[in-house]
């Protein structure tokens, strides 16, 4: 993994030919953590090219959310913030898109039951 000034609105990318993740130097610590988790998914699957098809990006987002969000912490945050994605994201130390991806994952894989 290398920090590098990426062009345009790129926050990170996985270069499969070099098996290397590049993260933009301008990222905040929270952005950096989330983008790194997303790019780790691309590296795990050896995805080719930047901004792959929407299914590949969705998979990377959902896998990143599973790496970054603890189910019990999510349940607590949702009990406090309800449907407020931004509040939940701040509570969990992730970007709002990670919360959205985690909610998609929950939808696809059943609900979280806390006793």
From TrEMBL:
InterPro entries: IrrE_HExxH (IPR010359). It comes from the Bacteria. Residues 18-94 form the IrrE N-terminal-like domain. It comes from Bifidobacterium pseudolongum subsp. globosum. This is IrrE N-terminal-like domain-containing protein.
